[in-house]
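Write out a record, focusing on structure:
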Amino acid sequence: MRSDPATSAAPMRGLGGPLRSSEPVRAAPAPSAAALLLEDAADLLVVHLDFRAALRTCERAWQGLAEEPAGACLEVKCSLCVVGIQALAEMDRWQEVLSWVLRCYQVPEKLPPKVLELCVLLYSKMREPGAVLDTVSAWLQDAGNQGLPEYRALAELHLRRVLLPLGCLSEAEELVAGSAAFSEEQRLDALQAISTARQQQKHGQSGSEETQKLNQEGSSFHKFLSLLTLLRQLWDSAVSHFFALPFRKSLLAALLLCLLVVRFDPASPASLPFLYKLAQIFHRIRKAVTSPLCWLPVHD
């Protein structure tokens, strides 16, 4: 039984008609120059570990993409940014990542979610979450981004990695309360984390105040001890200088001191017993100081 040619060709008509040997086969579209440069940049980054050349290749590709329509090659643009971020991080130039990305996209609201997530993770890992605070806040407040499927994950990442470490608790509460992206369970967990952070912040402030008070008290006590040490050194110096003087000069100095303080007349007969006792005291002091028996033994 012979098959009907019309019947056998019917399935092919739905696909644009039967193929004829004279018709050329349609080839896949050739990759763009930016896509080829993206492959080169990834090869330089992963295989050759030439991070500087990978970054230059990404920038060259971006210059070529500037001539194409705004909506074209969105995936290539995002991939170029990812390779550039990794190259900058490998060269320990992570501080330049955010400015480099914003130079490519001009405004924070246009950043792809994947690129923004990498920036948050990088700066939070390097303990500089404040650098991305304004950028992520602007992205989350944009109405066009709130309908994206990645919005919830980025909002939670911003809460955990940026707002809470920076102590921006009021901004965190506004984000949780004003965003519909959080489920009820996620909202309760976020509010619990905010409450815990607020308690830790209060305890930290009270602890710092107590530490500051103790430091002030310790500083005052240290100053008092230093003053006592200085007075003792001055007294020892004065005593050693006094006993280094000859006996007659010491006696004369004591008489002058008595004249100034006690104000008695040394020519008066009533002052003779006092002068005699004063002379005896000086003799005993001088004898006790100069006697070798009173010297303390020196231990090595």
